[in-house]
Amino acid sequence: MKKNLVIAIDGYSSCGKSTLAKALAKKLGFIYVDSGAMYRAVTLYFLRNHIDVSNDAQVEDALQHIELNFHSRDYESHITLNGEEVSEEIRLMPVSENVSEVSAHRIVRHEMVKQQQRMGRSKNIVMDGRDIGTTVFPHAPVKFFMTADPKIRAERRFKELESKGNNETTLEEVFENLAHRDYADTTRKESPLVRADDAIILDNTDLTQEEQLTFALYHVEPFLVQ
Hints:
The chain has 10 helices and 8 strands. The chain is of the alpha/beta class. A hairpin with a 2-residue loop joins strand 4 and strand 5. It is an enzyme of class 2 (transferase).
């Protein structure tokens, strides 16, 4: 097997990209890289420090003061922002409501893409996001594009928030947030969310987590013996 096999997983918000990516990494012994967490952590820093996303000079300066690191426990990816564990906070609604705008910024994307590409040069990784198979690793041998019914996605996200003790957000608000993010992700000028021509579509509207893992492994296994 290659020493730097990259499995790229793209798709809409709350389609279970990270769930599949973590399951694949655990099954294959790969490293899981949550690219979305990187953009969320940057968004959190911008919110805390009142960075004007429309001001390129402010954005560029802020990025010089952001240090992101991943650590793993039981194949759960945890991220630190300047040494502070923020894995839970970056999933709350204030970040969710602003992450599309931040992640669409040209300077932010260029910096994050450089960091992501460094991670895949010498390691076997599974990375999920919006532009992994199109911009970050366009030559990745295995690419998946995940989708699901919007109502199902909203319900999954709502249950996730509830499980973390967030009872202030309604299902309707989650649905609207996902619709807004879909529009922002697919229409932004910088690396919009699109399916790579060679990406395998995985619609998991009616699939269990075990079924989607089986589907993905079927397509990955031929590359494990090369």
